[in-house]
Structure formats: structure tokens, C-alpha cells
Specification:
3 helices, seven-stranded antiparallel β-sheet
Length: 167
Amino acid sequence: MSTLPEYVLDRVFDAPRDLVWRAWTDPKLLSRWYGPGVETIIHEFDLKPGGKWLNEMKWGEKSMLSVVEFTDVTPPERLVWHHSTADENWNVVASPMMPDWPRVLLTTVTFTDQGEKTNVRLSQIPVDATEAEIACFTNMMDGMSKGWGSGYAIMDQMFAELQASGA
């Protein structure tokens, strides 16, 4: 068996680790940056192993649902989850926009102190993927940093605001 493709994005934020952790685990903060350019609605957020995050991204009359199941929650060091596209009943389905997109991605986010700053490493790997899903994921990896980068830019602004206000 060949090695699965892995998308990795490292980013240093000018904020302490506890604040960066909050941005990933507080639904009010998460909905501000996750899904940049769309309205993000968090329907459920149960931050524990086996807990679910039911997410909706809306733009105009369209929306995309996803279900996340947390497998590891180690504050403030690590989050691990399985991420999938969902139908209106929160069942895992193929992506309506990209039918060959992997049905499940293993997402791992680690948070490491770097002095007063925090390094975030995001990793995503297809789980139980078909050859077509692996090919689709591999072809899309170069563009994935644009979406994450847009969200991270919002986080930069959010951290500056929160630190200035002492929140």
C-alpha cells in the first residue's frame, strides 16, 4: 500500500497558546473565522472525544453541511477529528460540489508555544479513501492553503482585537 497524501499547514500566530486554543474551541470565536467569506452556523459543538461539531456554511441560498467527530481533545495542545460532508440529517455523504472528495478526513491540529506566540500545525489525511478520492485530495492540496489562509487572516485580526481589549 502506498503512503496516503497528507496536507500540512504550519502557521505562527502572534497570540498566546490559550487564546489560539480558544479560537478553535469556542463556538463564538470559531464561527468568526471558520469558513471565511460565508456565514458559519454551528448547530452543535460537543468538545470531547466522541463529541460532534455540526457545522453549516451558508452563502446566499446555498449551504454546505459538515459533521466533525472529535477523537482526541487535549487542551491546549491537540485536537483530532474525523471531518465529513453531511446531508440535511447529518449523515455522511459524498460532497455535492466534488463527488470524488474524500468522505472522511482525519484532521489533527497541534498548538505549540513559541515564546509569546503559538505555532499551529494542521494536518489532514484521507481515511478509507478510494483511489479517485485520493487523487482528488492530492490535486486539491495546493489550493487548500488559500482557504485556510483566509481564515487565519481573520484570526490574526481577531487576536489583535481580543488582546487589545484584554479579553
